[in-house]
Amino acid sequence: MERTLKMLAKEAKMRMKKGFWQQCEEELSSSRSHAKEQGINESKMERYFQEKVTTQIKGETPDDFYLKVRDLLLSEGEVSNAIGRLTDKAYYETLSYAEKQRYTLELSERYLQALERFKHEYEFEIKGRNG
Questions:
Q1: Which of 11, 57, 49 is nearest to 27 (CA)?
Q2: How far apart are CA 28 and CA 120, in angstroms?
Q3: Which member of 7, 79, 95, 100 lies 3.0 to 4.6 Å from 3 by CB, making a disulfide possible if both were Cys?
Q4: Distance between CA atoms of residues 48 and 62, nearest Å
């Protein structure tokens, strides 16, 4: 479903009401402090944070990621390079070595959760057909 300008404006208004931007500012400030303490390049951390916020605003949900994983599992089964296939290559290239490691770990955790969900739902679906 394509989002209309009216829908986008309504979503923006809800973000304002719910304090979305205030939460973002607080999280960014905290992340900057953490980056300084860890010796992480602040600008790269800010790009990561910007991507995270943009994803939220675009409306990508954890279910969107799950659907990508489900489609992969249904079309090809469990593959050894699933993390590589799910990696956002353009974003990945902007990261430092440590950030790449963290991104890959987070992606791996999300993949394992989606895989577990898929197995649970698929098992339930099979039992429903046979039951």
A1: 49
A2: 36
A3: 7
A4: 17
Q: Can you give the pLDDT at residue 2?
A: 60
Query: 37, exposed or middle or buried, with CB in 10 Å at 0-12, 13-18, 19+?
Result: exposed
Torsion sign (Cα): 100, 103, 109, 113: negative
Give the burial class of 82: count Cβ atoms within 10 A of its Cβ; 0-12 exposed, 13-18 middle, 19 or more buried: buried
Q: CA angle, 128 as apex, 63 and 108 as ends, to 5°? A: 30
Distance, in Å, from the CA atom of 99 to the CA atom of 73, rounded to the nearest integer, reads: 27
State the Cα–Cα distance between residues 5 and 7, nearest whole angstrom: 5
For the entire predicted model, the pTM comes to: 0.54
